[in-house]
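Translate structure to sequence.
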């Protein structure tokens, strides 16, 4: 089997299988969360749940992750705060507005939109790679993080880093033949899709549940979420 056949396999059967595993795994985890229910809150309402939810999303998704002085934790964890925020920003932009990825979304869902200029996406991809390396070095050197880091954390890092670096190498045609690096990129993406329901990377799904619940609780009590 040559690399052209490997590429055909990774773009076809392997990618589809990994998508099925991803959807099935995330659906299972989502159903488990939903079936836990939401315990009735008997505390007297003093504010608006809806406003609390809106404010919590605005603070968490739009503004505050990149305004360090709003978070008390920034002073003791500035490197993780900045690198983590930049990584999540780059991940979102590359996946949502990279031209190649938009074609994938179109093939899956039949919808499309205009990509960002390639230099912007390329620059943010580089920022994402550097941010991941900074987060890795921080974990290796920070005395507390070193104690808290176990094997699943390292697996999470590798699973996210490999698609980033192989995609960047492929885009710039570095070191490998195109079909080789494209195959490696697809293999890394498929492994990530399979791993997500098993690891903590799945937090992107539960993030919205926690933001909604915490915002509603804070809004009902008329406090700032």
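Result:
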């Amino acid at each position: 089997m040559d690399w052209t056949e490997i590429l055909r396999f990774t773009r076809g059967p392997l990618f589809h299988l990994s998508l099925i595993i991803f959807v099935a795994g995330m659906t299972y985890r989502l159903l488990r969360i939903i079936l836990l229910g939401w315990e009735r809150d008997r505390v007297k309402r003093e504010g608006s749940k809806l406003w609390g939810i809106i404010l919590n999303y605005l603070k968490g998704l739009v503004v505050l992750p990149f305004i360090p002085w709003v978070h008390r934790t920034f002073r003791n964890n500035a490197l993780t705060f900045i690198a983590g925020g930049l990584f999540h920003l780059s991940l979102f932009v590359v996946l949502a507005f990279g031209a190649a990825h938009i074609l994938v979304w179109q093939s899956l869902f039949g919808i499309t939109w205009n990509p960002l200029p390639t230099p912007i996406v390329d620059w943010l991809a580089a920022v994402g790679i550097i941010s991941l390396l900074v987060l890795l070095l921080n974990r290796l050197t920070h005395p507390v993080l070193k104690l808290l880091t176990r094997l699943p954390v390292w697996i999470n890092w590798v699973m996210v880093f490999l698609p980033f670096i192989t995609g960047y190498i492929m885009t710039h045609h570095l070191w490998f033949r195109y079909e080789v690096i494209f195959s490696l990129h697809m293999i890394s993406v498929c492994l990530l899709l399979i791993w997500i329901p098993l690891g903590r990377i799945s937090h992107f799904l539960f993030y919205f549940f926690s933001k909604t619940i915490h915002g509603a609780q804070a809004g009902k009590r008329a406090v700032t979420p």
